[in-house]
Design brief:
four-stranded antiparallel beta sheet; five-stranded parallel beta sheet; homodimer; Arc Repressor Mutant, subunit A; DNA-binding
DNA sequence: CCCATAGCTTAAAGGAAACGTAAGCTTAAA
DNA sequence: TTTAAGCTTACGTTTCCTTTAAGCTATGGG
């Protein structure tokens, strides 16, 4: 499989590193730009950038200006990164050709989920239906089926189950789960995970037994 | 295989020595820094440091500040060392970019396990499945198989067996085992080991005979 | 062959981790 | 503003693991 290029544009070094880490781990080639000019230069120089992640709040040239400039030369998919409370401009954004929004702070799973969704839409990514232990996850429909029957899961439950299944057979510490499924600035009680696991097990019925407890260690999904 | 560099940052001499000894024994090249400034200087001077172990509680510049400073220039993997019950509110917002935590006191095995896990994730380490005397240890799945059949081991049993197999053919004194598998400040009865060995032998069946008693000395794992 | 020492076994106390329930809080919808 | 849903936290309960203690057995030197 070819290595897709993603460009992250943000003035904050930390944010770029964060996104770079997550997406590199997922097998993308990540390019970084610290401001709008750099972004446009880089976009023109590099061929076949598959997706751009664009921060709205930047000094000098803000995200909307960068967006407009890039839309003049390309219809590459663009995801805007906004801080909570900045969403008022969304309608304007969609008119200008924004494909998706991510609100900061976000979890690694959200990031990769949105990126996957976009690439799927533009036909550059693989299937989005996974199956394990009688559980089927359909990310496009955001739907879970157990033995054919649809099960209603909350948002977090869905994310958690998806993470388990993506890492089936691997023992996961609570710390690991917290870092990957929850927002990057979340610091909470690890017991929160226990509660969600409990709910998942209940909703999944017998298939829920696939989520094993590893005493003194964490959890593991096993078919 | 290349010799990976690990940097330990802690104001306590004892802790640095401890970590240095453990990791040197595991074939790492260990560098020490007694405070944040020294750490940053050293990190900039030395090329290709593969991993940083960073204590949180330090005078002058604390671990979080060091973390932020280093994250500005690099995305090197970082493991934070925290004391049990340390003020967790200050963690808010600083979590960004930490790969793993280790709570003091820890056992050498925990230390090397986390280090290995990180390096595995960043693709700089080898496989984590070992086999000896018909016993297979899979650290990723946190699973032990004897002649193909999965055997349920408790946390300590798992750690102990792993230590035996890593040191197969080597006679280990009880003191040695206590120092390596138990927390570094644990001072318990050596009979504790006997009990765990007994359970291991029972659970491993005939393969359990690979754990030999060396009278007046300790134990040895031999295929 | 006996004794001292080291190791083995068992059971039970104690502790730590996980579970279950419910209440509090936050966010989104009506 | 009210309502509802989901997320998080708190806490008592339960389960499981670790350690200790005590008696028993094996080993090897005298």
């Amino acid at each position: 499989m070819e290595e897709l290029k993603v460009l992250i544009v943000d003035d904050e070094e930390r944010m770029r590193k964060l996104v770079n880490d997550f997406l590199t781990a997922k097998g993308f080639k990540v390019l970084e730009a610290a401001d709008g000019e750099e972004a446009i230069d880089l976009f023109c120089a590099e061929k076949d950038i598959a997706l751009i992640l664009l921060d709205v709040m930047m000094p000098k040239m803000n995200g909307w200006e960068v967006l407009k400039a890039i839309r003049k030369i390309s219809k590459v998919p663009i995801i805007m990164l906004t801080a909570r409370g900045e969403e008022q401009d969304e309608l304007q954004g969609f008119k200008l050709g924004v494909d998706e929004y991510i609100t900061k702070p976000f979890s690694p799973k959200i990031l990769t989920a949105r990126v996957d969704a976009i690439l799927r839409r533009t036909g550059r990514s693989k299937s989005d239906v996974t199956e394990a232990a009688g559980i089927t996850i359909d990310k496009t429909a955001h739907e879970v089926r157990v033995d054919g029957k649809t099960v209603d899961l909350s948002y977090k439950e869905f994310e958690l189950l998806d993470y388990f299944i993506q890492n089936k057979g691997i023992a996961l510490s609570r710390e690991n789960i917290l870092n990957n499924v929850w927002d990057y600035d979340y610091f909470g009680d690890a017991r929160t995970i226990d509660t969600h696991v409990k709910k998942l097990r209940a909703k999944l019925g017998p298939s829920g037994e696939a989520i094993k407890t590893i005493w003194g260690m964490g959890y593991k999904f096993e078919a």
